[in-house]
């Protein structure tokens, strides 16, 4: 196996330090619903873990949850709840999203607020070794000039990073590039006692504390999005290796490309995102996974309805093969399953090339279809097909369309009436099915009055919400697409 290592900038032979691969992946900051950009990262690293186990490795996987942060504090204040309540609600929603996408749970999900003693221990150790210093306000900073190889992950020099950097008003840093390890508390903020006064951890230090506590001072794989390379992961290296006496912190740094929408990175702060919850209303887990895994993980991926709908159709084809609903000729033709398995392994051994692996799975499905059930079932070909699909986390189970989401339908319902300049009907106070029926009647009324563009808008809005309309001789009927 070969893995591209961000640290070296090239592919390297994968040789973990021990029998168990120690893997840490940066998690979410739960202040709002998670989006498809999060799904891109966690689906990929889910496949990394699945494939390592498929190849015979044991894996211990840790993924943090940043449950204290400026954004959480601000959002909790706006919502009139505690930071703990807000973070717990969105953490649970995130795990529910991951379960729905068939992402296997990490072995441990440590929370930042549960790791305060370890964080304080590391910060104090860095102070004792001259890597960190306390300022008058009670903040503690990491001294980047103390770290001779600071910038080695992002391949930058300290001088180039300092160009244009400045110390903001109120900051007491020695150097503009010094970063926060401990933040003195402000009135009304959650805080913990420390040797430097009441405060809370900075963002970067929690991952070092969690990784060292649960995986040890040296780990095999550290993963996350490319947007975390600098400053987050760069700072993790500096503080972790400073604390442990310059022991190499991570052997293989892996970073996935970013999901884009309209040419920009999808992110909560930019507000240009598709939530996982919204995507789940329209697409199956298999469809979402095929969309993401059909691109190489280090490349950017552009979200579009057309692309993910094409992936959903591909998922349907694979489901038909898995269920035995193939359209082959019935002539027994020997399918060489081992050829496909070997090709799949070769692709995944080459830096987890899921794009090529997905293509091989579709090739095998096509061959099974050509051969028909008689040939496809010879020597367990279907078993190999399911085995490879499972490595990619595809369930290939028939999609069961549940009840429409009331909130989603209510939002569409209101949007349609507002677009038409009409008062919202009392039907909004009813259930989702009643609102859909009312919109079907509204569409019929618009068509009767020859307002075809407005009628098409009703159909389109419902389709975007996962509700397909079908005009039949007995009237218009609807069904949930996924």
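^ Assign residues to that structure.
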């Amino acid at each position: 196996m070969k893995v591209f290592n961000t640290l070296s900038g090239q592919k390297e032979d994968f040789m973990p330090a021990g029998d168990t691969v120690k893997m840490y992946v940066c998690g979410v900051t739960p202040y709002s619903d998670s989006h498809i950009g999060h799904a891109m990262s966690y689906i990929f690293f889910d496949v990394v873990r699945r494939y390592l186990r498929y190849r015979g490795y044991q894996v211990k996987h840790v993924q943090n949850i940043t449950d204290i942060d400026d954004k959480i504090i601000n959002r909790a204040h706006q919502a009139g709840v505690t930071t703990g309540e807000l973070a717990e609600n969105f953490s649970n929603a995130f795990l529910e999203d991951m379960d729905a996408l068939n992402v296997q749970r990490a072995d441990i999900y440590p929370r930042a607020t549960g790791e305060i003693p370890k964080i304080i221990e590391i910060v104090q150790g860095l102070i004792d070794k001259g890597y960190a210093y306390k300022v008058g306000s009670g903040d503690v900073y990491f001294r980047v000039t103390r770290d001779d190889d600071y910038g080695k992950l992002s391949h930058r020099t300290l001088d180039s990073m300092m160009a244009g950097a400045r110390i903001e008003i109120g900051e007491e840093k020695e150097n503009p590039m010094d970063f926060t390890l401990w933040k003195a508390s402000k009135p009304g903020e959650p805080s913990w006692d420390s040797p430097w006064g009441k405060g809370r951890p900075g963002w970067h230090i929690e991952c070092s504390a969690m990784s060292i506590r649960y995986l040890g001072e040296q780990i095999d794989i550290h993963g996350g999005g490319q947007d975390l390379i600098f400053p987050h992961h760069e700072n993790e290296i500096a503080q972790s290796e400073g604390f442990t006496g310059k022991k190499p912190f991570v052997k293989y740094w892996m970073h996935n490309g970013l999901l884009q929408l309209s040419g920009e990175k999808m992110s909560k702060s930019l507000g240009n995102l598709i939530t996982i919850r919204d995507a789940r209303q329209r697409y199956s887990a298999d469809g979402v996974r095929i969309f993401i895994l059909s691109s190489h993980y280090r490349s950017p991926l552009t979200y579009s309805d057309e692309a993910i709908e094409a992936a959903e159709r591909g998922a349907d084809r694979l489901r038909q093969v898995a269920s035995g609903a193939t359209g082959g000729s019935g002539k027994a033709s020997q399918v060489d399953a081992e050829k496909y398995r070997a090709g799949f392994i070769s692709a995944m051994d080459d830096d987890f090339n899921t794009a090529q692996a997905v293509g091989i799975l579709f090739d095998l499905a096509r061959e099974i279809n050509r051969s028909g059930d008689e040939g496809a079932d010879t020597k367990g070909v279907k078993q190999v097909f399911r085995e490879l699909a499972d490595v990619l986390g595809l369930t290939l189970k028939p999609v069961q369309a549940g009840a429409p989401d009331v909130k989603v339908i209510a939002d569409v319902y209101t949007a349609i009436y507002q677009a038409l300049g009409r008062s919202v009907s009392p039907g909004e106070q009813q259930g989702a099915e009643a609102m859909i029926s009312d919109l079907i009647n509204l569409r019929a009324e618009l068509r009767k009055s020859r307002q075809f563009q407005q009628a098409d808008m009703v159909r389109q809005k419902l389709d975007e919400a996962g509700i397909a309309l079908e005009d039949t001789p007995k009237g218009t009927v609807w069904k949930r697409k996924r």
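The chain has a mean pLDDT of 91.
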